[in-house]
């Protein structure tokens, strides 16, 4: 079986899911070719697992200081290039096209009448789940940005809807939590501002990952550019995670039973809805504003949150795909 797998690469969460599912697809004997879009080729890192992958421009958004800049997003879009990439992508050699909210593979499969499965967190928003700042535009994006013949949503809870648990890319490892170690990943914030927020909290050791950061020690703050292996190590050994409200990192933190505080990317309906769901499910905390006082209050809080343990969704999906990705077979999966 040969599969074309499209991955939206604007953030690292989709890539993390591809790492998890890709390993199990390979174990099932499935040949997978990867296509990534939404990020310049020179901004990818630790991609050896994906072999000779393709990179396309696709569509992305521009952020500034924790907010989406819609004007710059529109000005930097390249719709003609997107349309050309969709028309030129040949799906004829593949038995199935998978898309994790990646538009080029999704629309190429649709135009060529190729079997396709779309899966990811965004497809959960096609169902009745907690949503914040929903609009006709956001609903249209979730429905038409990267459609598939089958669409599988992922979320932290099923909300009595046909939704699967998260796919988490976590290898077996000792989950030993240092009560003073805090992982910080706020890629949409000004990293120097983040450092200023953390600087007075000297009773904690912060492990800060972010774009543009160089590896180095600033007292009790360890800075590093995004990477995979060391990031996963620090995630296992921290006691708390401070991040934006992206889906995948929060899913991994929940699986490891870490304390969580999120600040949603303002103007991004998905992240704002994630923050709402996280608090409604009593799995973590959210804030609209970050500063030293907010972070300190969270770290010293004694609020207890619900715990979750998710099954190996990547393994089950890989087996389902290898068996033909039958819709009836998916409905029979008991994952909650």
TrEMBL record:
Transferase in keyword set: yes
Name of the protein in its database record: Glycosyltransferase
Record's keyword annotation contains Transferase: yes
InterPro entries: MJ1255-like
GO terms assigned for molecular function: transferase activity
Stored NCBIfam families: MJ1255
Name of a matching Pfam family: Glyco_trans_1_3
Domain of life: Bacteria
Alphabetical keyword list: Transferase
